[in-house]
């Protein structure tokens, strides 16, 4: 395994007029980070970034295949680019990421105007691949690539936050999930490389780092003992300036004592934990191939809660998995009530090609999926409201992100556990401030910047 380096990139073939690249990004944080890494490679090779498609001569889609809905949204968007491409000579359309990996060269049959299909392990080669494109001669790069890549700087628009990939791929086989087939088996990055990357980010002012992996808490398995996420967190905890360290997403199967100890003992490891349960029914969990029961899941949550002050779990649930009965669904509601999540993501099951569940009848009617989805969201509202309202009157530590996208007159930021906080603008973007909480909904805290220190701020 080697690391990409400038020297490996052939010279860009557009020295006279640099390509103006517009990125369209779909999907999860992992994909957003891939997009940043791909864009960084393009900028290093002399391309310039075009925020708007009107200013671009190249569009790169970073795509998501996790649910049919995500894929459909992308395809309908892609379709509109045929005309855009026809209107300007030399315009290029590239499709990168999970949908590119899933469909490979097949994609060109349905969308013959696409110039480049770039799979999940090739996006750091975007400059080289784009340079190889010739009229009516598209390029396809999917499958194993045999490299890892280190990022030189953060392209995250938020100055103090960054995502760092610690592993790629997934070696589990949850029955519903397309990820192992589009991202390949789990490969962990060497800890020294991760540490160097985070030191560089922290020296440039990044205070809040999220380690990313499909099953981030299995980090180190592909490297062998003594590597583990707990050991990695301990080795990163002392980096100067790094106030907050988090990791997503964890799999219940790999939650061990050492990791809970690390979360409890290391002051900059945050107390939010994204631990998808997917269902509260043991029969459904078994068919999903998740490798734990609802009882085991609750045991993990109880152990975290007992040891980590301010522990704030978040979860994912799939409703309408094949064969899910009303009784199974009630077991999911019971699990949600027992855990009391800070926030949850709920997804309606959608069959994905090539997965084990795709062979099972998709037998929960769409209206039932929709109704269960709505019931879980309503239940979560009920659970989260008192948790958020309990913060009223406290002063919480907030990392300031900047103007809120939804209501630009307000600033937004996050607490250590990941709660969204809205407050009047302050002159401290990228800084840690105390905010006195005056109001709350089930999704956000509202307050005013406080002078003086934050309380325990969890
Ligand atoms: N259908 C619905 N939701 C899915 N997820 C993954 N695959 C599917 C699918 N086929 C959800 C899981 C996962 C999240 C990222 O997406 O809840 O945790
Ligand atoms: Fe992320 Fe999975 Fe979507 Fe790929 S398919 S972008 S890994 S959520």
What does the secondary structure layout of this molecule look like, with pairings?
Elements: E1 2-3, E2 20-25, H1 29-44, E3 48-49, E4 58-63, H2 68-79, H3 81-86, E5 92-97, H4 98-103, H5 106-110, E6 116-118, H6 126-132, E7 139-141, E8 147-148, E9 161-165, E10 167-168, H7 179-183, E11 187-188, H8 191-203, E12 208-212, H9 229-236, E13 244-248, H10 257-265, E14 272-274, H11 282-288, H12 294-307, E15 312-319, H13 326-339, E16 343-348, H14 366-389, E17 395-403, E18 411-414, E19 420-423, E20 432-440, E21 444-450
Parallel strand pairs: 1-8, 2-3, 2-4, 4-5, 5-6, 6-7, 9-12, 12-13, 14-15, 15-16, 19-21
Antiparallel strand pairs: 10-11, 17-18, 17-20, 18-19, 20-21
The protein binds 5'-deoxyadenosine and iron/sulfur cluster (SF4).
- Ligands bound to this protein structure: 5'-deoxyadenosine, iron/sulfur cluster
Q: How many helices in DSSP terms?
A: 14
Strand content: 15-25%
Number of domains: 3
| CATH superfamily descriptor of the largest domain | tm_1862 like domain
* Distance between the first and last residues' Cα: 40 Å
CATH class of the largest domain: Alpha Beta
Strand neighbour order, sheet with most strands: 3-2-4-5-6-7
Give the fraction of residues assigned to helices. Answer: 25-40%
C-alpha Rg (nearest Å):
23 Å
Structural class: alpha/beta
CATH architecture of the largest domain: Alpha-Beta Horseshoe
The third-level CATH topology of the largest domain is pyruvate-formate lyase- activating enzyme
Major sheet description: 6 strands, parallel
How many individual β-strands?
21
Poorly predicted ranges (pLDDT <50, ≥5 residues)?
A: 1-15
Mean pLDDT: 92
């Amino acid at each position: 395994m080697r690391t990409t380096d400038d020297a490996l990139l052939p010279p860009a073939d557009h020295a006279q007029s640099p390509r103006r690249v517009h990125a369209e990004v779909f999907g999860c944080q992992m994909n957003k980070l891939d997009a940043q890494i791909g864009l960084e490679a393009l900028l290093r090779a002399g391309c310039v970034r075009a925020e708007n498609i009107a200013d671009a001569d190249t569009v790169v889609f970073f795509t998501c295949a996790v649910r049919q809905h995500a894929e459909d949204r992308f395809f309908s968007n892609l379709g509109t680019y045929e005309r855009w491409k026809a209107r300007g000579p030399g315009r290029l359309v590239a499709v990168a990421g999970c949908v590119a990996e899933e469909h490979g060269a097949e994609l060109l049959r349905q969308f013959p105007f696409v110039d480049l299909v770039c799979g999940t392990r090739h996006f750091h080669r975007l400059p080289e691949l784009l340079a190889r494109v010739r009229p009516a001669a598209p390029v396809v790069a999917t499958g194993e690539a045999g490299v890892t890549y280190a990022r030189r700087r953060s392209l995250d628009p938020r100055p103090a936050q960054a995502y760092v990939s610690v592993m790629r791929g997934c070696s589990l086989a949850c029955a519903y999930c397309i990820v192992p087939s589009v991202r390949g088996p789990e490969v962990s990055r060497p800890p020294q490389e991760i540490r160097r990357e985070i030191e560089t980010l922290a020296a440039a002012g990044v205070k809040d780092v999220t380690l990313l992996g499909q099953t981030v808490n299995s980090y180190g398995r592909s490297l062998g003992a003594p590597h583990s996420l707990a050991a990695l967190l301990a080795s990163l905890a002392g980096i100067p300036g790094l106030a907050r360290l988090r990791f997503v997403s964890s799999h219940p199967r790999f939650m061990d004592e050492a990791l809970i100890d690390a979360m409890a003992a290391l002051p900059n490891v945050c107390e939010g934990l994204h631990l998808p349960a997917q269902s509260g029914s043991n029969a459904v969990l078994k068919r999903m191939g998740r490798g734990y029961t609802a009882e085991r899941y609750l045991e993990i949550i109880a152990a975290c809660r007992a040891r980590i002050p301010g522990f704030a779990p978040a979860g994912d649930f799939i409703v309408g998995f094949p064969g899910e009965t009303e009784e199974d669904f009630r077991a999911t509601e019971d699990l949600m009530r027992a855990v009391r999540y800070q926030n949850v993501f709920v997804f309606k099951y959608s069959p994905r090609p090539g997965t084990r569940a795709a062979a099972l009848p998709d037998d929960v009617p769409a209206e039932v999926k929709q109704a269960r989805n709505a019931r879980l969201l309503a239940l979560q509202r009920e659970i989260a409201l008192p948790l958020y309202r309990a913060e009223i009157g406290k002063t919480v530590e907030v990392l300031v992100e900047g103007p809120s996208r939804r209501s630009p007159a307000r600033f937004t930021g996050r607490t250590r556990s990941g709660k969204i906080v809205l407050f009047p603008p302050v002159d401290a973007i990228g800084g840690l401030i105390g905010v006195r909480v005056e109001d709350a909904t089930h999704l956000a805290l509202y307050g005013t910047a406080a002078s003086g220190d934050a309380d325990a701020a969890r």
